[in-house]
């Protein structure tokens, strides 16, 4: 650690578990080297989660890529009449859920496009039919942007829709659609869709209904450190209010096939610095995830020493970031995930979506163990 009075004051705060301010975060970004950031983030990581690194056995389902919005960073979406557009049938969706079940996955992560013509009931029915067929699979579905769209379509309040879908089998909300909350950036990259305040409101309502959720931040495009810190502090404020967030996932921008393809993708250095700064600023989030699909396996593994305590899961059938040029594999096997975690000097623990330990009798049959402590 260099002898720098302000940096030393920040270090003392981190060691004492005190909250870092916007100015502290800015100072760290401007003056701390990678190793200092990692060392500080690791203090928080090990205080909250010890040597454990979590993973889960999950699958992704994107029932349609047709989308009314045109986010500049998105390579996944398709126009209504585009040849690239698809809408999965009920049979295809149930087939995918069956595959998820037979592989012993504990979670189905469901997000997609906001289709111009499909009604809210189509989205509701997806949750209902999967839950009825496979009630043991946790359904983590629809980003805040989708919930906002459902409300615009139906004229009904988002909280009422969340409650209805919870009754139908919804287990929790994913953290997508957050991008960058600050309007100076948001209006340039994803104008028209739910803004930062609406995103926060949907998650507040979900938490009030007893649904847990995650949060994300898309970094490495046109935003600056000020916007990233603003984003993290808005999330921290909501977490102070509700305590409903489980995990924060920094998402590295992938430019291929997007309207921002002239911007290079973030470097490994930026990935690790963003991971560490997120861990330091989000002092009330129990978990920080290194999402290997976005980061690549090597950086995700390294991030376990830069604040991350979760590697996500087996994933399978990820299409959103692969469309934007992610060159990570479609799927990681459990043995490989465990090997990566152990090689990083951590202890692998399989969790379900709500951070209960998963106890496996064999590869595919499992039961829920104890609730893992959230600090
Ligand atoms: S990011 Fe989501 S909302 Fe934006 S264009 Fe892509 S699919 Fe649509």
TrEMBL record:
It comes from the Bacteria. Its cofactor is [4Fe-4S] cluster. It is an enzyme of class 2 (transferase). The keyword Cell inner membrane does not apply. GO terms for molecular function: 4 iron, 4 sulfur cluster binding; 7,8-didemethyl-8-hydroxy-5-deazariboflavin synthase activity; aminodeoxyfutalosine synthase activity; iron ion binding. It catalyses: 3-[(1-carboxyvinyl)-oxy]benzoate + S-adenosyl-L-methionine + H2O = 6-amino-6-deoxyfutalosine + hydrogencarbonate + L-methionine + H(+). Pathway: Quinol/quinone metabolism; menaquinone biosynthesis. Residues 53-286 form the Radical SAM core domain. CDD domains: Radical_SAM. Its EC number is 2.5.1.120. InterPro entries: Aldolase_TIM (IPR013785), CofH/MnqC-like_C (IPR045567), F420 (IPR034405), FO_synthase_su2 (IPR020050), MqnE (IPR022432), rSAM (IPR007197), rSAM_sf (IPR058240). PROSITE patterns: RADICAL_SAM (PS51918). S-adenosyl-L-methionine binds at residues 73, 179. Keywords: 4Fe-4S, Iron, Iron-sulfur, Menaquinone biosynthesis, Metal-binding, S-adenosyl-L-methionine, Transferase. Binds 1 [4Fe-4S] cluster. The cluster is coordinated with 3 cysteines and an exchangeable S-adenosyl-L-methionine. [4Fe-4S] cluster binds at residues 67, 71, 74. Gene3D superfamilies: Aldolase class I. Pfam families: CofH_C, Radical_SAM. One of its GO terms (biological process) is menaquinone biosynthetic process. PANTHER family: AMINODEOXYFUTALOSINE SYNTHASE, FO SYNTHASE (COFH). Belongs to the radical SAM superfamily. MqnE family. Radical SAM enzyme that catalyzes the addition of the adenosyl radical to the double bond of 3-[(1-carboxyvinyl)oxy]benzoate, leading to aminodeoxyfutalosine (AFL), a key intermediate in the formation of menaquinone (MK, vitamin K2) from chorismate. This is Aminodeoxyfutalosine synthase. It comes from Telmatocola sphagniphila. The gene is mqnE.
């Amino acid at each position: 650690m260099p002898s720098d009075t302000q940096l030393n004051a920040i270090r003392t705060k981190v060691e004492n578990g005190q909250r870092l301010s916007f100015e502290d975060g800015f100072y760290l970004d401007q003056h701390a080297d990678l190793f200092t950031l990692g060392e500080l983030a690791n203090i928080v990581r090990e205080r909250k989660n010890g040597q454990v690194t979590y993973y889960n056995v999950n699958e992704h389902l994107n029932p349609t890529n047709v989308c009314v919005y045109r986010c500049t960073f998105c390579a996944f979406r398709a126009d209504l009449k585009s040849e690239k557009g698809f809408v999965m049938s009920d049979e295809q969706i149930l087939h995918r859920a069956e595959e998820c079940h037979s592989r012993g996955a504990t979670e189905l992560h469901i997000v997609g496009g906001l289709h111009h013509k499909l009604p809210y009931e189509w989205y509701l029915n997806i949750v209902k039919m999967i839950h009825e067929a496979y009630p043991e699979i946790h359904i983590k579905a629809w980003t805040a942007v989708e919930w906002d769209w459902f409300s615009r379509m139906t004229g009904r309040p988002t909280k009422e829709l969340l409650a209805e879908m919870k009754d139908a089998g919804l287990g929790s909300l994913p953290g997508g659609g957050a991008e960058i909350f600050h309007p100076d950036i948001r209006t340039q990259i994803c104008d028209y869709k739910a803004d930062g305040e609406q995103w926060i409101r949907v998650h507040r309502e979900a938490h009030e209904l007893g649904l847990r959720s995650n949060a994300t931040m898309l970094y490495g495009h046109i935003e600056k450190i000020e916007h990233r810190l603003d984003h993290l502090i808005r999330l921290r404020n909501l977490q102070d209010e509700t305590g409903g967030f489980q995990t924060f996932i920094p998402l590295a921008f992938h430019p291929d096939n997007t309207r921002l393809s002239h911007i290079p993708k973030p470097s490994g250095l930026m990935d690790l610095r963003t991971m560490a700064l997120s861990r330091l600023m989000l002092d009330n989030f129990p978990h920080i995830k290194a999402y290997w699909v976005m980061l690549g396996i090597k950086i995700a593994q390294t991030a376990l020493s830069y604040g991350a305590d979760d590697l996500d899961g087996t994933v399978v059938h990820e299409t959103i970031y692969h469309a934007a040029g992610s060159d990570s594999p479609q799927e990681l096997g459990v043995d490989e995930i465990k090997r990566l975690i152990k090689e990083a000097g951590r202890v692998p623990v399989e969790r379900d979506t709500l951070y209960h330990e998963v106890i496996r009798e064999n590869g595919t049959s499992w039961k829920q163990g104890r609730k893992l402590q959230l600090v």
